[in-house]
Design a protein that fits this description.
Layout lengths: L14 H37 L4 E8 L1 H16 L3 E2 L2 E9 L2 H10 L7 H4 L5 E3 L3 H6 L5 E7 L3 E8 H9 L7 H6 L26 H14 L9 H5 L1 H15 L9 H10 L10 E5 H10 L5 E4 L7 E2 L2 E5 L6 H14 L2 H9 L29 H12 L5 E8 L7 E2 L2 E2 H15 L5 E12 L2 E11 L10 H11 L8 H14 L6 E8 L10 H11 L7 E7 L5 H10 L4 E4 L5 H10 L2
Parallel strand pairs: 1-3, 1-4, 11-14, 11-16, 16-17, 17-18
Antiparallel strand pairs: 2-3, 4-10, 5-10, 6-7, 6-8, 6-9, 12-13, 14-15
Helix pairs in contact: 8-10, 10-15, 16-17, 16-21, 18-19, 19-20
Length: 595
C-alpha cells in the first residue's frame, strides 16, 4: 500500500511566486507613481513658468496725500494675493502727490509735464481728492469713467465756542463773504470780541478743498445752492464780489498766511485764544479733521457744516491713458480698484475717517459724522477755474475814473469788431469782476462832446452798488453806457486828461487806490494844451495827501507814447502797450491796472 500524508495541516503554497507577484506590484505602482509625480512636477513647472512668463510689472499709483497711506495698505494686501495679469506678476507702488500737482502735470503734457523727481513714477492709476481734478484734466488723459472710492464732505474746522454760535445763527455758505468782509461782523452772532470772520483760504499745492468750499459759496450766492455753478454765474458781479470779499478778507488777516490746508488747520488747533487769533475757520474734509483730532486728542476743534448743498471730496480712481500706460497696467489698475471696493478693503478706508456706503464710522472720535441735506453738483472746469482766478487775484476795492477815447480812429476794425467795441467789452468784463464797494466812473472824450468841451461825464464816479440810475445800479449803468459808446471825431487827450485828473483829486477816497485809467489809440490832435502844459498842470493839481495815479493803456502805434509814459511815471502809475484790441492782451492790461 502506498503511504498517505498526515492530516496535521494544509498543504503549503510555494513562496517564490508570491515574492515575484509582490515585486511586480511594487514595480507597477512605483512606475505609475513616478509618472504621476513627473506629470505633477511638469504641471507645476509649466504653471510657474506660464504665470510670469512675461516677467514682472509694476502698477504705479499717484494718490492724494489724504488717502495715500490707506491706499498703500490696500496695495500691499493686493500684492500679497500674487496677482497675474497677461502673464505678468503684478506689484503695486503708491506715491503721495497733491491732486493739483498731478492735474497740472497732465495739462502740461507728457513731454514736459511729468517730473519723476518731484512726482514719483508716472502713474497708471490716479486717485485725486475729488472729481473736480478729473474734470480739469485735459481731454483724453483719463481712460473710461473715474468712479469714486471714498467720500468725505467739506466742513469748516472751528473751535467749539464758534461752532455753537454758527449753529445758533444757522449760517449758510452764502453768509460767509459778508461775515468775512464786514467790520466786527461776528458780534451779530453773539461774539462781540471776535471781530470779523477769519476764514482761511489757502491756495498752495495741497489745498484742493479750498476750491470745493469756494464752489459752495458761489452756488449759494448765485441762488442755485445745489449747483453746478455755471460759467455765467462764475463771471457774475454777485459771485465775483462775494469771492473777492472772501479773498481780500483773508489777505487782511494778521500774520503769515498758510499756503496749505494742513498748515491752516495746525494754526487753528494750536491757537491759545480763538477770539484773538486771525484764523477762526478752515475749510477741510471731514476725514482731514478726523485724522487731525485723532493725532491731537483733547483738542477743542470741531466741525461745522454750513446750511446749503455740501461739496464732497469723493477720491475717484482714474485710469490714465497715454503711451506710458500699457494694457497690462490698465488692467492691473482696474483689478486693483475692484479689489479696493470689496467690503473688507473698504473697511480700511472707513476706519480712516472716510464715508464708505454700507460701512460703519470710526468709534474713536468726537466727530458725529452728520448727514447733510444735499450734495453740491460740481462745476465744470471753466467755471471752477474762473472762481479760483478771482480768489487768487482778487480785484481790490478802489476809486477809478475810466477815461475812454472815442475818437474816429477807435472805429477801426480789429478782428470781428471795432477797436472801440473790443475795448468796451474788455472794460465791461472787468467791471463785472469788481466788488460792489469799488467806486468807478466813465468819461468819454474826443472833440466837442459837451458843447466846446472835448469830454463828457457819462457815469459819475461812485460805488458800483449805488442806485438811482435809469438802468438800476451804477454797475448796470456802466454796462449800458459802454454798450452805446460810438466813435466821434478828434482826439483831445491832453485837455480831457487834465480835467479827469483834477476831478479825481477832488473826489479822492482815503484808504484805497485812486486812479484815472486812460485808454487811447492815437496822438493828441488838440492844440489847446502842449506836452509841457499838461505835465505842469498835472503837477499843480496833484496833492501828496491825495495820491491819484494815472494808468494808461495805449493801443497800436501811438506817437504820444513818450508823453503818456511821462504822465504815468510822474503820478506813480503804469503804462501798458498792446499791439491790437483783438485778443487777450487788452483784457489782461485792463485787469492789471484795475485790480
Amino acid at each position: 500500500m502506498g503511504n498517505h500524508r498526515g492530516g496535521k495541516g494544509a498543504r503549503g503554497i510555494s513562496k517564490g511566486p508570491l515574492i515575484v507577484l509582490g515585486l511586480v506590484v511594487v514595480i507597477v505602482l512605483g512606475v505609475f507613481g513616478w509618472f504621476q509625480l513627473a506629470d505633477r512636477i511638469d504641471d507645476q513647472g509649466a504653471a510657474a513658468a506660464g504665470a510670469c512668463v512675461e516677467g514682472d510689472s509694476v502698477l504705479s499709483i499717484a494718490a492724494d496725500p489724504d488717502i495715500a497711506s490707506d491706499i498703500r495698505t490696500l496695495a500691499d494686501r493686493f500684492t500679497a494675493t500674487s496677482p497675474v495679469i497677461r502673464d505678468h506678476c503684478i506689484s503695486v507702488t503708491v506715491t503721495p502727490v497733491a491732486s493739483d500737482a498731478v492735474r497740472d502735470a497732465l495739462i502740461a503734457g507728457p513731454e514736459v509735464g511729468w517730473d519723476d523727481n518731484l512726482l514719483g513714477p508716472r502713474p497708471a492709476l490716479w486717485i485725486p481728492s475729488s472729481s473736480q481734478s478729473i474734470r480739469q484734466a485735459p481731454a483724453g488723459a483719463v481712460s473710461g469713467e473715474a468712479r469714486p472710492l471714498a467720500a468725505s464732505p467739506v466742513v469748516l474746522a472751528v473751535r467749539s465756542e464758534f461752532e455753537s454760535a454758527l449753529n445758533t445763527a444757522a449760517v449758510d455758505w452764502k453768509d460767509l463773504p459778508s461775515l468775512q468782509s464786514g467790520r466786527g461782523s461776528l458780534a451779530a452772532l453773539g461774539l462781540p470780541n471776535w471781530g470779523s470772520l477769519g476764514l482761511a483760504l489757502p491756495v498752495g499745492s495741497g489745498s484742493a478743498v479750498t476750491e470745493l468750499a469756494i464752489e459752495a459759496v458761489a452756488a449759494s450766492v448765485a441762488g442755485d445752492s445745489a449747483g453746478p455753478v455755471t460759467a455765467e454765474q462764475a463771471h457774475s458781479p454777485q459771485v465775483t464780489s462775494a469771492l473777492t470779499g472772501l479773498a481780500l478778507g483773508y489777505e487782511a488777516l494778521p500774520g503769515a498766511k498758510p499756503e496749505t490746508t494742513r498748515e491752516a488747520l495746525t494754526l487753528l488747533t494750536d491757537a491759545d485764544d480763538p477770539s484773538t487769533e486771525g484764523i477762526h475757520a478752515v475749510p477741510v474734509t471731514e476725514q482731514q479733521l478726523y485724522l487731525a483730532l485723532r493725532d491731537a486728542p483733547g483738542s477743542d476743534v470741531t466741525a461745522f457744516m454750513p446750511n446749503g448743498a455740501t461739496p464732497v471730496a469723493d477720491h475717484p480712481a482714474a485710469i490714465l491713458s497715454g503711451p506710458a500706460v500699457d494694457e497690462t497696467q490698465s488692467r492691473a489698475a482696474a483689478q486693483f480698484t475692484e479689489f479696493v471696493r470689496e467690503p473688507e478693503q473698504g473697511q480700511v478706508l472707513a476706519d480712516a475717517g472716510f464715508r464708505i456706503e454700507g460701512l460703519g464710522r470710526p468709534d474713536d472720535t468726537a466727530l458725529t459724522f452728520p448727514g447733510f441735506e444735499a450734495r453740491l453738483v460740481p462745476a465744470d472746469s471753466g467755471a471752477a477755474a474762473e472762481m479760483m482766478r478771482v480768489v487768487r487775484n482778487p480785484v481790490t476795492e478802489r476809486t477809478s475814473t475810466i477815461l475812454l477815447d472815442v475818437s474816429r480812429s477807435m472805429g477801426a476794425v480789429e478782428g470781428v469788431a471795432s477797436r472801440l467795441a473790443n475795448t468796451t467789452t474788455a472794460l465791461a468784463a472787468q467791471i463785472g469782476r469788481s466788488p460792489d464797494a469799488s467806486s468807478l466812473g466813465l468819461w468819454e472824450y474826443s472833440t466837442n462832446l459837451d458843447g466846446t468841451r472835448p469830454y463828457t461825464t457819462v457815469v459819475a464816479t461812485g460805488p458800483l452798488s449805488a442806485g438811482g440810475f435809469t438802468e438800476g445800479t451804477r454797475r448796470q449803468a456802466l454796462d449800458a453806457r459802454l454798450a452805446k459808446a460810438a466813435p466821434a471825431a478828434g482826439t483831445a487827450t491832453y485837455a480831457s486828461l487834465e480835467a479827469a485828473y483834477e476831478s479825481a483829486v477832488a473826489g479822492f477816497t482815503a484808504g484805497r487806490t485812486n486812479s484815472v485809467l486812460l485808454l487811447t489809440d492815437g496822438a493828441n490832435d488838440d492844440g489847446s494844451l502842449t506836452r509841457a502844459d499838461l505835465l505842469a498842470s498835472l503837477a499843480a493839481a496833484g496833492d501828496p495827501s491825495k495820491p491819484v495815479r494815472i494808468d494808461v493803456v495805449t493801443i497800436g502805434e501811438n506817437p504820444d507814447l513818450n508823453t503818456l509814459q511821462a504822465v504815468a511815471d510822474r503820478t506813480g502809475g503804469s503804462l501798458e502797450k498792446v499791439a491790437s484790441s483783438d485778443g487777450p492782451a487788452l483784457a489782461t492790461a485792463i485787469s492789471k491796472l484795475l485790480s
